[in-house]
């Protein structure tokens, strides 16, 4: 019988002395079953770790000792003098890594419980850096990024020796060199000398970066899009100094087009000449047709079925077509968008959109037809600018009004979104500003100016605290609201507006208490989130706002919520109470999607 971490195995041998007498069938079966049961591998008892009570040091010194001693268990290291000696050696190594070479360490055990060990530490005086001879030669000697690295991370005289920081600085030099194209960089001298009895350390690092490489020729293979369009995505020019981050930007720009199923951007080191690195781009076309289906639910629109049909590329110019169908209890819509990239395919394009929508919600019934031509720019400041001309025809019933209208509306909008990565980013901000204008002079049935804005911000304090704020505003400048269709009026309430109130139930009302929609809207939300564990968060929030014609009737909603950072985005479950006016009471909100 043997012991190991895998388990304990029992083996039984059956000796049959009289082979002339056959074993009866029942006896044979019983023996076979017993043999099978007894041959099962039973797991061994898990190894129990020792408990260490470390005294005399704190902070980083104590933490590093704990890391070095974490490996000890009673199975691999039985109690005794040999164990204590080994622990003293490891604890001493842990302290030396942080510059303490003159330590006195004593280990003793609790007689009543050998699994508990006392580690008494007297760290002594640390070793400090006496001389720091750091030299940088080659093209990096005049590189501002290397100067910053030396100023912030280089070992300096008088500092306590930290082996991890020393090794980290060496790695940082090599890493920066690779990121910036110093492919021949290496250390001429890399030496750390320690004189423990003098409590001194001597650092000698001579780093020769060599010549910085530049981007060479860029070649494409496997592509179905005209090369002129692909080259407009390149964020650098041939002859520019190499930057790995720009290769990453190029890769992201290619991925954002949706034209390719596989993208590989890499330098061809076998063809480097005259300190120039050629860039190879290997591509594989995306499928011609992509169909996506999905089922979702939110308390605003109830269950929703989605069907998307995309054609990521139609020709060598990179034109694309997308079609979206969405069906829910209160709203059904279908829309198609044809995208025409321009010379700079990532930043500039035209888009032609056609859509139809039917709505039946509260006191609103409408059938919309939209046709829009849009021009999109990505500005160097990071803002997206969109200029558009939209034709809207809407046949509607809003409360006691039954009408139809045709509008031609030029528009202009700016929006910008910045955020860190992850389903629930640690920081983010979003700003949207838009205006649409209609005038009877060019064939519209009404004259007005419609303004729309949305501001959102997410911030964090540490890893477990998040804050989310939103402000949503709108205004219609015209003499009378009755001419406008429901899709252009303002309603508030719902999971992305004032929680505690039903979807679009915060609105002016007529004499029959029917919702009419408002000329103005202003809502705000303030939310605090606390991470309970992993991807799960608890939230507390307060929302405030109104939609009105002449005088706002402010309402407030408060509540608690649960957040889950799912792989497809935040899932939000809110328990909310409306505190004011019509519609106040309890509401349950469930939503999936971005928080801003």
TrEMBL record:
Describe the location of the POTRA domain by residue ranges.
213-267
Q: Which Gene3D superfamilies match?
A: membrane protein fhac, membrane protein fhac: a member of the omp85/tpsb transporter family
Q: Which residues form the Bacterial surface antigen (D15) domain?
A: 294-580
- Major place of residence: membrane
Subcellular location per UniProt equals: Cell outer membrane
> Can you tell me which residues the record assigns to a coiled coil?
none
Identify the residues that the record assigns to the TamA POTRA domain, covering every copy.
52-122
Domain of life per record: Bacteria
Spell out where the chain crosses the membrane: 27-45
Q: Which keywords appear in this protein's UniProt record, sorted alphabetically? A: Cell outer membrane, Membrane, Signal, Transmembrane, Transmembrane beta strand, Transmembrane helix
The record's similarity note reads: Belongs to the TamA family.
Record note on quaternary structure: Interacts with TamB to form the translocation and assembly module (TAM).
Q: Which PANTHER family match?
A: SORTING AND ASSEMBLY MACHINERY SAMM50 PROTEIN FAMILY MEMBER, TRANSLOCATION AND ASSEMBLY MODULE SUBUNIT TAMA
Protein name (database record): Translocation and assembly module subunit TamA
The species is Rheinheimera muenzenbergensis
């Amino acid at each position: 019988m043997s012991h190991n971490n895998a388990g304990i195995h029992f083996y039984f041998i059956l000796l049959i002395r009289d082979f002339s007498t056959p074993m009866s069938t029942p006896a044979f079966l019983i023996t076979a079953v017993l043999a099978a049961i007894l041959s099962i591998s039973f797991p061994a008892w898990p190894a129990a770790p020792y408990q260490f009570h470390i005294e005399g040091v704190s902070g980083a010194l104590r933490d590093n000792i704990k890391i070095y001693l974490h490996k000890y268990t009673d199975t691999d290291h039985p109690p005794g003098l040999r164990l204590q000696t080994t622990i003293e050696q490891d604890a001493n190594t842990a302290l030396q890594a942080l510059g303490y070479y003159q330590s006195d360490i004593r280990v003793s055990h609790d007689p009543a419980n050998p699994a508990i060990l006392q580690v008494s530490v007297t760290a002594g005086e640390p070793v400090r850096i006496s001389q720091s001879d750091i030299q940088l030669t080659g093209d990096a000697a005049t590189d501002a990024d290397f100067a910053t690295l030396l100023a912030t991370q280089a070992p300096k005289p008088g500092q306590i020796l930290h082996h991890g920081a020393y090794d980290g600085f060496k790695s940082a030099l090599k890493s920066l060199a690779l990121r910036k194209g110093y492919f021949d960089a290496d250390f001429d001298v890399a030496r750390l000398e320690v004189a423990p009895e003098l409590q001194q350390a001597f650092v000698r690092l001579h780093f020769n970066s060599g010549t910085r490489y530049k981007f060479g020729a860029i070649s494409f293979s496997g592509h179905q899009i005209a090369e002129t369009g692909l080259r407009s995505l390149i964020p650098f020019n041939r002859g520019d100094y190499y930057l790995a981050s720009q290769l990453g930007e190029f890769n992201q720009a290619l991925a954002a087009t949706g034209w390719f199923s596989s993208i590989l951007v890499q330098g061809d080191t076998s063809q480097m000449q005259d300190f120039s690195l050629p860039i190879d781009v290997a591509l594989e076309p995306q499928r011609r047709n992509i169909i996506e289906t999905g089922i979702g639910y939110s308390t605003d629109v109830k269950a929703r079925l989605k069907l998307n049909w995309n054609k990521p590329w139609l020709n060598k110019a990179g034109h694309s077509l997308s079609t979206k169908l969405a069906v829910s209890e209160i709203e059904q819509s279908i829309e198609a968008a044809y995208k025409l990239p321009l010379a700079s395919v990532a930043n500039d394009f035209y888009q032609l959109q056609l859509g139809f929508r039917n709505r039946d919600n509260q006191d609103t019934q409408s059938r919309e037809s939209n046709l829009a031509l849009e021009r999109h720019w990505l500005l160097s400041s990071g803002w997206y600018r969109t200029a558009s001309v939209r034709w809207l025809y809407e046949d509607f019933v809003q409360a006691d009004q039954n009408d139809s209208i045709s509008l031609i509306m030029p528009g202009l909008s700016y929006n910008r979104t910045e955020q860190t990565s992850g389903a629930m980013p640690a920081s983010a901000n979003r700003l949207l500003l838009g205006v649409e204008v209609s005038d009877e002079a060019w064939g519209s049935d009404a004259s007005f100016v419609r303004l729309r804005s949305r501001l959102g911000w997410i911030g964090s304090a540490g890893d477990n605290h998040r804050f989310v704020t939103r402000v949503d505003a709108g205004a219609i400048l015209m003499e009378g609201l009755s001419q406008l269709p429901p899709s252009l009026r303002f309603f508030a309430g719902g999971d992305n507006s004032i929680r505690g109130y039903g979807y679009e139930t915060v609105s002016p009302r007529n004499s029959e208490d029917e919702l009419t929609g408002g000329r103005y809207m202003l809502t705000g939300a303030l939310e605090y989130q606390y991470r309970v564990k992993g991807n799960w968060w608890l939230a507390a929030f307060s929302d405030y706002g109104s939609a009105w014609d002449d005088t706002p009737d402010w309402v407030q909603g408060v509540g608690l919520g649960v957040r889950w950072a799912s792989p497809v985005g935040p899932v939000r479950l809110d328990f909310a109470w409306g505190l004011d006016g019509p519609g106040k009471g309890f509401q349950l909100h469930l939503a999936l999607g971005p928080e801003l």
